[in-house]
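Entry 14: structure prediction run for FAD/FMN-containing dehydrogenase. Input pasted below.
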Amino acid sequence: MSDPRLQALQQAVPDLRLKTEPADLEHYGRDWTRRWTPAPLAIALPASVEEVQAVVRWANQHRVAIVPSGGRTGLSGGAVAADGELVLSLERMNKVLDFNAVDRTLTVQPGIALEAVHNAARDHGLVYPVDFAARGSCSIGGSIATNAGGIRVIRYGNTREWVAGLKLVTGSGELLTLNRGLIKNSSGYDLRHLVIGSEGTLGVVVEATLRLTDPPPPSNVMLLALPSFDVLMKVFAAFRERLQLEAFEFFTDRALHHVLAHGAQKPFEETHPYYVVTEFAAGDEIQEAAAMAAFEACMENGWVSDGVISQSDAQAAQLWRLREGITESLARYKPYKNDVSVRISAMPAFLEETQALLGQAYPQFDVVWFGHIGDGNLHINVLQPEGTGDAEFVEQCGHVTELLGQTLKRHGGSISAEHGIGLVKKPYLDSTRSDEEVAIMRGIKRVLDPNGLMNPGKLFDS
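Run finished. Output tokens:
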């Protein structure tokens, strides 16, 4: 370890685990975007809050930027370290610290996987309802940093609704305890919500107190085949009117094609242009009858061409795999991803305009659509064709994203629904935020991170 800065760090924090091998630098220095070449100074793996504070103080003394790191499953370049930063991995801080049965809260360290949080809540007869496909590898700290949403936002909301309290090490090394798990707290600014979704630019989340809730009622899963794009919101309205929806997820025939190639089972003999997988409460005969009534009404109106309802947990898992397996099935194509949102009421007009825009912009590309239609969130994946260079592909997609940002601005939407801004969406932040808002955000960062060392270059340039 020849770098004098790292020698000073090891002296300041003798028990700190440091990694500097090239393979480790590459592994920890990137996220799922795979667009930037990792080039971190080193990887620090603290085991306590005190070690995190000591690392941040060292960083201020030596003016070394820090990239907080969780599971690195992000899709916006928020965890990329490509410019000599120190990656601060929280993977060793992965324990459940406390369960409070009266408050129905679970206090955890930031490096714990989302799936482990689910399991810990289940052990106490409760649930942590935020859920998405990367549950086995994403960390709770990362999901807080991006205010992650997922497949059940339609019923439970985003991560923000389930964080009762946080501990944050600021960019200057101070430890803040935010909200203390209170349900009511009107004593000034709620800095907890400022941290949620801040993408590691204000500090390092070192502890989280999460709200838990009762398990949902028994549910069932239905897969629907749709004949056209313009009936999508009509089907959603028909099901939402009759059922207590847990999820309502949409994907195209191209998405299904890639998931089937990745090993999933084909649900229908025929191929249809659009699909919906929906989960809904079905604990009694009345609810089951309501589900069939919704399906039959859609069939009679010509909005649905075919459908299948799960008859077992195993079949429900197979149907969900058709939606949850999409991202993994596309990974080898290095897709350019857009993750956008609009109000549900604005979705029909936005979908129509966006479909036309993408059809004109990407006639030669394989474009895979899917998303959480029930909460206004759409994912657009453009697959890189063989023979197209990385730089050329990104430039073409960036031009279309600029147009997409203008469309979102007209419809009052957001260029990032749940993946964060990071590096990927930074050029398009002005489609979502005004100059005045960005100026205020920069000012907030200067207060909590006076030397600009926390995940610099992400979200916006200082």
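Notes: The first strand starts at residue 17 and ends at 19. Will compare against the previous run tomorrow.
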